[in-house]
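Help wanted!
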Amino acid sequence: MIFRGRFEYTIDPKGRVNIPAPFRDRLQESAQGSFFLTNFSDCLYAFAADDWARIEERLSRVPSTDRKMNAFVRFFLGGVVEVVPDKQGRILVPPSLRSYAGLEKEVVILGMPNRFEIWSLARWQEEIGRFEKEVHEDPGLAREISALGI
Amino acid sequence: MIFRGRFEYTIDPKGRVNIPAPFRDRLQESAQGSFFLTNFSDCLYAFAADDWARIEERLSRVPSTDRKMNAFVRFFLGGVVEVVPDKQGRILVPPSLRSYAGLEKEVVILGMPNRFEIWSLARWQEEIGRFEKEVHEDPGLAREISALGI
DNA sequence: GGTAATTGTGGGGAAAGGTGGGTAACGGTT
DNA sequence: AACCGTTACCCACCTTTCCCCACAATTACC
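Answered by r_m:
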């Protein structure tokens, strides 16, 4: 499932964040509005139930002898929670995820293919800043982008 | 049985640790809430009754002539205890397991496929630190992760 | 442009979850 | 048989989470 757009919200003292209405509508179609939230690359990844099921399937096939990949599973699966927006469309972000992603006040939610992401506003701005710098300095990156037909 | 999420607790002076409520619920479905706890890879592994039965089945097929594997069985099966959470949802971790996993105060419980794990907070942070370093330095690992469809 | 619906934010109260401690049963040892 | 340390079970408190309701702001629609 693909998600589109960028949304800014504030996380309240209780740790609740609003989920964009269009995303909620899309999630309603598949599961009963629930989705899965986990930690990755300095932000939170959110997956629709059936996309997450596919991922879990693959995670459970990782051999327990593969030390590095096991560490990844500990991190990724260990981070996950199933969440359901309340009647106002918010979810409660567990303390562990809140601190991982550095969510304190201003929050950005981004659509992505197969998922959406929850960022602290400050971190997301840094990330974008880095990208803009690189796209100017790295001709290879620019070529890769134009290869997408953009 | 798959377990999801990360939970932080404190182990009290009596050696009791809380078990995450969602895990307790899942364990209730199969056995009467009991599970099996043993020592492995610097932490404690916890298995639901039927998953553990499968493991014992395989352990009992290890030929007694296989010296190395026998050492493993001694270690793994020798460490195991069956535990049942009390009315408050805690278990008593036997001293031998407590010292093996270095559990003193702060404890992390992690969901994994087929089991959950009990870590000392400090050790788990080291483990995660190592992983994050490797994922940045090792492009092969990053590729393996993205191959999971993430 | 005015009205209605939707969306986002804040807060209160009830329920659940987690922590600490007391006391009685148990088991092993002298 | 008495003693000591450990375990099991119980109760009480505090914090967090869940589920409401209310209001402000924005958007959609006539």
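OP: Thanks! One thing I noticed: Chain A touches chain B at residues 40, 45, 54-56, 58-60, 62, 68-69, 71-82, 94, 96, 114 (CB under 8 Å).
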